[in-house]
Amino acid sequence: MVDVILGLQWGDEGKGKIVDYFAPNYDVIARFQGGPNAGHTLYYEGKKIVLHQIPSGIFRENKINLIGNGVVLDAVTLKRECESVAAFGVDYKKSLFISERTHLILPTHRAIDRASEASTGIDKIGSTLKGISPAYMDKTGRNGLRVGDLLDKNFVSKYIKLRLKHQKLLDNFAFNEDISSWEEEFFEALEFLKTLNIVNGEYFINDAIQSGKKVLAEGAQGSMLDVDFGTFPYVTSSSTVTAGVGSGLGIAPHKIREVIGITKAYCTRVGSGPFPTELLDETGEQIRVSGNEFGSTTGRPRRCGWIDLVALNFACMINGVTQLVMTKADVLDNLETLKVCESYLVNDVETKQVPFQMERLKMEPVYKEFSGWKTNITAIKSFSDIPGEMEIYIKYINEVLGVPVKFISNGPGTDQIIVAP
Ligand code: GDP
Ligand code: IMO
Ligand code: MG
Fold first, then answer.
1. What's the N-to-C CA distance of the chain in angstroms?
2. 40 an active-site residue?
3. What tens digit of pLDDT does each residue of 274-315 get?
4. Given 3, 20, 27, 40, which residue is catalytic?
5. Among 48, 47, 46, 67, which Cα is nearest to 57's?
6. pLDDT tens per residue across span 58-92
7. Is 263 in the pocket of ligand 1 (CB under 6 A)?
8. Is 109 a catalytic site residue?
9. Does position 121 have pLDDT exceeding 90, yes or no?
10. Which residue, 172, 170, 148, 169, is CA-closest to 158?
């Protein structure tokens, strides 16, 4: 059977840590979408590691880590990442597998991403500039090159043909940076990629399921960045929700069992777009500092705000979430008062639904206030030891979402996790 772990907010919920925590219970850990726009942090032997392309089960022994067909792959990032995990003794030649249907991010995709963002001025998406949107555009536009194409003797001529198409776009944007060094490292990385385990991903994973292996599908980004259900156009370019597991790995829907949704105890967003509960005051700054809320991929400061139960309810509905993990609860340790958004006022009418195109509306969150716990919770191991105020906060979230918080993360460390009864 297959379980899924995904983010319910605007990304960076702590998926890396939580996937690493759950990985020992599974045989296969598979990324189903996204690309190097993701930055998934975990700790191994006390060292901080940020993974962009490799699934977060890579440090667990005897696991298969699969990069699924729904992912877009930057070979240069992958090569670098393989080298960095190898330095910790990981034998990626044995534990890492890549679907032949996975689309490649080309140097020109990165250039187009950059040129396109630069041309939009204040309307920019705030993309990570990793070439994600142009790569997915070439996938749906049926132009893209896939990992399996590397073994085709016509690969270079196909590349040149596509590069010429991209050049026309770049000329339109008046983009004239020299990307020849990007191309050089790209072709070098492709040679490396060819030496890895390239598999027919959908047979590979279904055979594993058939033989009784347990699969954990690892999401990237978050539900509110989903290309269909997120705050379009301020979204990423893939299906970040449970439905993406089907198309991103070739798994039938009825094989999916648990959907483990991750939410921070508050909320963050990096990049542009609507964020109803954003705090532009001192409290927002306090959360940013104590939560070290700076992007794992780009280093940009993350926008911080209160937990948004309207958006979370929507995410639970779209994903069919069966259990919740609440991360970064410790970040709220010093706050006197906590707020929880339980509805929105849209043009002065109260609603519990996420509206179409929030940024065009006059919108205000409606909050319920809770007392903060004002206790350092980072060393707590047992649910029975959590402060009363925290229990009230969590109970309320359970009730409103109708899905239980089963795990509470109280620090970045692998062992900083409290299991709820
Ligand atoms: P991901 O993209 O969902 O994997 O999340 P990121 O790795 O981008 O960002 C999460 C950040 O929070 C990382 O720096 C983690 O080390 C850190 N983190 C994860 N869980 C906790 C927690 O419970 N408390 C604190 N203080 N930090 C955490
Ligand atoms: P993880 O997996 C947070 C955001 C970008 C931008 C928008 C589009 O670490 O949670 P893109 O590069 O995909 O075209 O950018 O999506 N974004 C993320 N924000 N966490 C991520 O990944 C993100 N990946 C993309 O900031 O607003
Ligand atoms: Mg991240």
1. 24
2. yes
3. 999 999 999 999 999 999 999 887 888 999 999 999 999 999
4. 40
5. 67
6. 999 999 999 999 999 999 999 999 999 999 999 99
7. no
8. no
9. no
10. 148
